[in-house]
Amino acid sequence: MYWGTLGTVRPYSNFYPDRDVMEIVTALENKDTVTLLRILTNRNNAQRQVIAQVFQELTHKDIITALKKALSGDLELLLLELLMPPVEYEAYRLQEAMVGLGTDEETLAEILSTRSGKQLQSISAAYKE
Question: Which range marks the domain in which residue 62 is found?
Fold first, then answer.
């Protein structure tokens, strides 16, 4: 695990990425948001990264592109964020915190004060991409 803790989402013990991908494909075709949420919120980040890779291998499509095509609004944003690797997500949060007229000091303080030097270097590299 990236941050050294298990967090609140534990690895799904009955994890079969091929099955998850096939369910996701069907859910995207049917705009079945309940199934998408059930799968992606009950897998930890490492498992979601495997799902994204297997999705690419089985469908020859990018799961991010497929989600953007099928969804919109807050649900789309939530699922896209869930599929980000932790370092990319933290970099994204920093970028979002500094967009617009004001800054989100709370988010900046949370990330910058609770991550180790090594983690901040990784986030910085992802931020620059």
Answer: 17-82
